[in-house]
Specification:
Elements: E1 2-8, H1 12-18, H2 20-26, E2 31-35, H3 46-49, E3 55-59, E4 69-73, E5 79-82, E6 95-100, E7 103-109, H4 118-143, E8 147-153, H5 177-186, E9 193-194, H6 195-199, E10 226-230, H7 232-235, E11 238-243, E12 259-263
């Protein structure tokens, strides 16, 4: 089997001070995808610069202190690629993929957007380009007999079951009709599977992000915006999927929780 985990660390230097290093030392994951690293490789704390047992690939953003993705794998990647051949976004620290034997694993940090602003327009441009990439990625993988999983913070809740207060958020970035329709395309014409939802079709959540404001975490007033989106062959081999929600608010090292899936290999 292979165990894949994805988590938005909300700044890896801050997370390292709150428990991320200890979590990484205890995880049984074979691959860990990170988002919102917000650090150059030379800015990493010493305990994260050399990770015994891990091969680390970092893709920081050109804009200092923003975005940034990474993939840690127990085995050395056969290939790594930053970006998806996008002149606008390849240096934005939002996409990285590695090839392992028979499997491509990608870490995605999709722009969050903000209704009525340039940030939302940027998100829409990213989504349009990325949908094309997803289609090509799956076609290439299928031709080569490979499977694909795109892990990360997709910054869109797909269905009402994916956020606590969905009625109040229908005009908010992350739950707009056009964003949800785009995910329909990812899971439709592009041919991918939402692995966690496939394993838990009838439940609310499981949420992966809770605002630090108010008592969102204590009340489990969250959003499910972190996904593992896989090619059908790999998705069919998924046996368990869990959100590693901290036991208490004080034990959180990010406003997101790791999403961990076990795939039969």
């Amino acid at each position: 089997m292979i165990v894949v985990t994805s988590v938005n660390v909300n700044g890896i230097r801050a997370a390292a001070k709150k428990g991320f290093v200890e979590w990484l030392g205890a995880t049984e994951a074979d691959v860990v995808c990170l988002q919102e690293v917000r650090a150059e490789a030379d800015q990493l704390p010493p305990e994260l610069r050399d990770l015994p047992g891990w091969h680390a690939v970092w893709a920081p953003a050109a804009a200092k202190g923003r975005a940034g993705v990474a993939v840690l794998s127990r085995s050395e990647p056969e290939r790594t690629a930053v970006g998806f051949e996008s002149p606008e976004f390849d240096n934005s620290g939002r996409y990285l993929e590695i090839d392992l034997p028979g499997l491509t694993v990608a870490s995605l940090y999709l722009p969050s957007g903000e209704v009525g602003t340039e940030r939302q327009e940027e998100k829409e441009r990213f989504m349009a380009e990325f949908l094309v990439h997803l289609g090509k990625l799956r076609e290439r993988a299928a031709a080569a007999g490979r499977e694909v999983v795109v892990c990360g913070d997709w910054n869109i809740a797909h269905r009402p079951e994916d956020l606590k207060n969905w009625k109040a958020n229908q005009k908010a970035a992350g739950f707009l009709p056009e964003e949800r329709a785009w995910l329909d395309q990812v899971l439709g014409e592009a041919g991918y599977v939402d692995v966690v939802r496939a394993l838990h079709p009838d439940r609310t959540g499981p949420y992966t992000w809770w605002s630090y404001r108010g008592r969102a975490f204590d009340n489990d007033s969250g959003w499910r915006i972190d996904y593992q989106i896989a090619s059908p062959g790999l998705a069919a081999r998924a046996t368990t999927a869990v959100v590693e929600r901290a036991a208490t608010h004080a034990e959180r090292w990010s406003d997101h929780a790791p999403v961990t899936v076990v795939y039969d290999h």
